[in-house]
Amino acid sequence: MVIDSPAAAPTSTFLVVDDDPLIRRVIRRILRGSLVLEAASVQEAEAVLATPERRVDLLLSDVVLPDGDGYELSERARALQPWIRLLFMSGYGPGVLAQYGLPRGTLVAKPFTAEQLRGRVLEELGRPVQPLI
């Protein structure tokens, strides 16, 4: 994965799902050099994932979305693209997040630095695809 060189050809494809356009824009900059697709909702993300020629390597989704949640989206994403890796992000604390049943170790807390996000993305890409529990 190339995440620092805007001139390099993308080697990984990410789908960033967050209802805040500013957050999506910041993440696009952090992951520059890779192909970063964006969606503002579960419905938009599903449309991207359902495109047969669009292979997504990692789904980076907010946990709380206007039309569902990131965990429900991850289940649908895995049904469409079984190889997809998952990373969730949220500004909510553990009490709120406990109700979503996220796979262990797949959360990056907002706010995060560019280095933190890059590190977590690289870490997730280096792991085998984790089953949903």
Structure overview:
The protein is of the alpha/beta class. It has one domain (13-126): Rossmann fold (3-Layer(aba) Sandwich), CATH 3.40.50.2300. The protein has 5 helices and 7 strands; from the N terminus they run βαβαβββαβαβα. It has helices at residues 21-30, 42-49, 70-80, 94-97, 114-126; strands spanning 13-17, 35-39, 58-62, 64-65, 68-69, 85-90, 107-109. The strands form 2 sheets. The protein has a 5-stranded parallel β-sheet, with helices on both faces. Strands 4-5 form a two-stranded antiparallel ribbon. The radius of gyration is 14 Å and the shape is globular. The two termini are 27 Å apart.
Q: Helices and strands in order, then pairings?
A:
Elements: E1 13-17, H1 21-30, E2 35-39, H2 42-49, E3 58-62, E4 64-65, E5 68-69, H3 70-80, E6 85-90, H4 94-97, E7 107-109, H5 114-126
Parallel strand pairs: 1-2, 1-3, 3-6, 6-7
Antiparallel strand pairs: 4-5
Helix pairs in contact: 2-3
* Quaternary structure state of the chains depicted: single chain
Instruction: Please report the first level of CATH classification, the CATH class.
Output: Alpha Beta
Query: Domains counted in the coordinates: how many?
Result: 1
- Write down the secondary-structure element order: EHEHEEEHEHEH
General form:
globular
Ends apart, CA distance between termini:
27 Å
Q: At the third CATH level, what is the topology name?
A: Rossmann fold
**Estimated structural class:** alpha/beta
Question: What is the count of DSSP helices, taking H or I runs of 4+ residues?
Answer: 5
CATH architecture heading: 3-Layer(aba) Sandwich
Strand order of the largest sheet: 2-1-3-6-7
How would a textbook summarize the main sheet? Answer: 5 strands, parallel
